[in-house]
């Protein structure tokens, strides 16, 4: 891309980033999903080198189509029940260790139940099933970086819930 095209993209990005994010947030009801969809929309715009005259319409149309694709995939995605979380092995047999282990399992389960369904599902896919970021991204139909961001945010939220 030439420097002029790069500046044009930056201008379009700065002009439509917030309106597109708001539009997608209203559709998804989830700020992080909207951010992921907006990011993917701008990446596609950058790759296709959309003309500035049609940029606004193209962005909102593409964002909507990405939202619909994601919604369809979610409908087909089975939800992982909390009961599928395996018990953590207890090392040592003293009553104190067993009690602490049981308390920790309970806190983890409670914190997981307070996460958004998608965050919980991604964490369980990563930790319990041992799937890679790439496999999870393919499953949800998003980029690997989007899944990494989602995992980071979900882990941060888990820490906040565990500390509370």
Characterization of this structure:
- This protein is mainly α and 164 residues long.
- It has two domains: 3-76, Rna Polymerase Sigma Factor, Chain: A; 82-163, Winged helix-like DNA-binding domain superfamily/Winged helix DNA-binding domain (Arc Repressor Mutant, subunit A).
- The protein is 76% helix and 0% strand.
- The protein has seven helices and no strands.
- It has helices spanning 3-28, 31-48, 55-76, 95-114, 117-127, 133-140, 144-163.
- Helix 1 (3-28) runs antiparallel to helix 2, helix 2 (31-48) packs across helix 3 and helix 6 crosses helix 7 (144-163).
- It is elongated.
- The mean pLDDT is 83.
Describe this protein with a few key phrases:
164 residues; 76% helix; Rna Polymerase Sigma Factor, Chain: A; single chain; mainly alpha; 2 domains; Arc Repressor Mutant, subunit A
SSE map:
Blueprint: H1 3-28, H2 31-48, H3 55-76, H4 95-114, H5 117-127, H6 133-140, H7 144-163
CATH fold category name of the largest domain: Arc Repressor Mutant, subunit A
- Count up the helices: 7
CATH superfamily annotation of the largest domain: Winged helix-like DNA-binding domain superfamily/Winged helix DNA-binding domain
Structural class: mainly alpha
What is the radius of gyration?
A: 20 Å
CATH architectural arrangement of the largest domain = Orthogonal Bundle
- The helix/strand order is HHHHHHH
For the record, the CATH class of the largest domain is Mainly Alpha
* Number of extended strands: 0
The separation of the N and C termini measures 48 Å
Number of separate domains:
2
User: What's the overall geometry?
Assistant: elongated
Report mean pLDDT, rounded to a whole number.
Answer: 83
Low-confidence stretches: none
Q: State the major sheet.
A: none
Helix content: over 70%
Beta-strand share of residues: under 5%
């Amino acid at each position: 891309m030439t420097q002029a095209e790069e500046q044009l993209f930056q201008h379009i990005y700065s002009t439509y980033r917030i309106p597109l994010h708001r539009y997608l947030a209203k559709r998804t009801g989830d700020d992080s999903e909207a951010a992921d969809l907006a990011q993917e929309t701008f990446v596609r715009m950058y790759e296709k080198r959309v003309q500035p005259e049609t940029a606004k319409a193209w962005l909102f149309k593409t964002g909507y189509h990405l939202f619909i694709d994601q919604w369809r995939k979610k409908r087909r995605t089975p939800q992982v029940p909390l009961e599928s979380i395996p018990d953590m092995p207890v090392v040592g047999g003293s009553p104190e260790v067993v009690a602490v282990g049981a308390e920790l399992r309970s806190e983890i389960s409670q914190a997981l139940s307070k996460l958004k369904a998608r965050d919980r599902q991604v964490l369980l896919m990563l930790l319990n099933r041992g799937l890679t970021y790439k496999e999870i991204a393919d499953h949800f139909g998003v980029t690997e970086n989007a899944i990494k961001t989602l995992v980071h945010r979900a882990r941060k939220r888990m820490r906040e819930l565990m500390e509370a």
